Amino acid sequence: MSTLCRHCGTPLRQSFCDLGMSPLANSYLTADQLDRRELFYPLHAYVCSKCCLVQLAEFESAEFIFTDYLYFSSYSQSWLDHAQSYVRDTTARFHLDSSKQVIEIASNDGYLLQYFVESGIPVLGIEPAENVAAVARQRGINTRVDFFGTSMASKLIGEDIRADLLIGNNVLAHVPDLNDFVAGMAIVLAADGVITMEFPHLLQLIEHNQFDTIYHEHFSYFSLLTATRVFAAHGLRLFDVEQLPTHGGSLRIYACHAEYPRHVTSRRLRELAELEQAACLHLPEGYTDFPERVKLTKRALLEFLIDARNRGLSTAAYGAPAKGNTLLNYCGIREDLLDYTVDRSPHKQGRFLPGTHLPICAPDHIRETRPDYLLILPWNLQDEIMQEMSYIRCWGGRFVVPIPELAVVD
To answer: What pTM did the predictor assign?
Structure first.
């Protein structure tokens, strides 16, 4: 492979995780698409030998992937609670009021900005998927349909719009032109403004075997050390970090302009950087043992599903997340081993999973068919899902959690 690192331009030669060929994880199919040609792409992550950014090659443009998108953030109550807590905390910490401007990049359906609006704080959402932005606008949330980068940032500056708080939740990984994106944030950020970005933590991905979070829509995978390096290259300084439970373990980083003196580097930022260095995430050698653990997970899941089928037991799945599509396609799991999946989002119901073509039903289908096992694909929401679906225990149903290693829960 001769692809260059999207941050520092170094040729990518060291493999991190090879998951074979897979379709785009959010390319859900309608019934009339099932017999048409479906595109599969290499799903192979590499690690840069210089800056240690873990990344995929770009096989489809962001415009193709995100223009019509079926992920709506508001269908997870735990995620809404997370957003509301964030708004409450940042409003107090950074003294936000009606004189301040909040901008969220990849604002989705307004799941977060709605809470700033309730507090009378001016907001602007930037969302590339027009169908998703339309939902936010229906809620009265000021939203522009566009991809963010230096061009968009310059337009905002030309309109005298600057961010006192600039937010990006689970967007940094989705950006193919990483340098243009971060440079754009530096442009639109007010002189005393603050950036917060949330993204899955690479250290958690490695330590907890979360290989299914690798899919084509995620171009990059970040450690704190690499994120610090990328932001510094564009005149931005990280001054604080929080470790979050979301998405199986995420980071929320806080950044400001490098020359802004008032934000002192926190102790927890220094301690997490030291923890990552102890795990050798600043060296290529820290990434060599991951592939074998991935193969063990695949074998364990297949052995379980095959054994259940041979014993005449039925298995359905809960959820239609992108991570689930990575897992099912990597393992080659189809209707011979898994009957169907369900999802709370009406935008996904009635469609089919990419690659595996498993039908996506409404959650009530579980009660109607009474499967013996329920495979939880969004394992990061397992507590919420097990509470919601606790009634399967009435007929002896059991939950199956595939990551970090296979577990069957009564």
So the answer is: 0.89
